[in-house]
Amino acid sequence: MKKKRSVILAILCLFSLNISAQKKSNKDEVVTITTNQGTMRFILFDEAPKHKANFIKLAKDKFYDGLLFHRVIDDFMIQGGDPNSRTAKPDEMLGKGDNGYKIPAEFSPKLFHQKGALAAARDNNPAKESSGCQFYIVQGRKWSKPDLEKQATRAARKLTDDQKKVYETVGGTPHLDGSYSVFGQLIDGMDVIDKIGSVERDERDRPEKDVAMKVSVKKMKKKKITRKYGWNYEA
User: What phi and psi, each to the nearest 5 degrees, are found at residue 32?
Assistant: First the structure.
């Protein structure tokens, strides 16, 4: 019990230090996920500071290297981060692995499940706490206005007009909004999501051929991120 409490306190301390640093910095972390289907790059949101700090720490600790995208559903999402997937046999069921803690839910009206969103997986706990390690990347699809209205009624919050426009023109999974914590967005490699989403998979939605990942973090000036990847930071 004492050991678990110490781990939690250490994580909270990390979150606090990370938040303080972000407020003063003109730099940001770019997360790179490399797979045999291509490379994806993400920025992580300050509006989800606990998730951001946690993901960066795990990436720097090489926690994700060698893990699989173990659940792939075309036109929906690709999921990975189960520590049990590193040594999993081809027919092994995955998705139950964890790293010993959960992260409190972090919802923001600005963050939504557009295509390329990076979000935290979770079980059915009533507080909607996130897995400490498992995540998914939204593929989704484009929605017509009538279908989007039906999806919006399933969401746990009301969508803005701008968000509806993105779902109609870019795509995503609107019914997940307000139920799962979004904490990042893809800024390079959108086609890779589609490539992984289209791989052959078994009846459990696990790819027939393993799609392993390597995750790294690089701090860059925000102006360079905007210039290189087209991501615009709000003033």
Answer: -115, 125
